[in-house]
Write a structure and sequence with these properties.
By secondary structure, the protein is mostly helical. It contains four helices and no strands.
Length: 109
């Protein structure tokens, strides 16, 4: 059975080939998908506490999360435009998921 590597093993500057770079990116992608799945569980649970679509959209919370992401990007040395784009897409997708959950709940009552 093949061993699944869950953490990158080579620093980017030490990669000796494109194949090695891609292999390390694949490891990170697996981690990202796992984290998104974990976040999705919490988002689904949060939906249960929200009374309506306005609470789901929560613009103040979105602004708070985006500001925190920007701060974390600075601290990690990550490119802020990339972090902002990823978080914007992720938040929009999770809001759509929550809105769909609320629509199903509302139709059921």
């Amino acid at each position: 059975m093949a061993t699944v590597i869950t953490t990158p093993s080579v620093a980017p500057e030490h990669c000796a080939s494109l194949a090695e770079v891609r292999s390390e990116i694949d490891v990170i992608d697996r981690q990202l998908v796992g984290l998104i799945a974990r976040r999705s569980g919490y988002v689904s649970r949060a939906a249960a506490f929200k009374a309506d679509s306005t609470a789901v959209r929560a613009p103040d919370r979105v602004a708070q999360v985006m500001a925190k992401a920007t701060t974390l990007a600075d601290a990690a040395g990550a490119p802020k435009p990339v972090v902002a784009a990823v978080f914007t897409a992720m938040i929009d997708a999770f809001i759509a998921q929550e809105l769909a959950m609320h629509a199903q709940t509302t139709q059921g009552h």
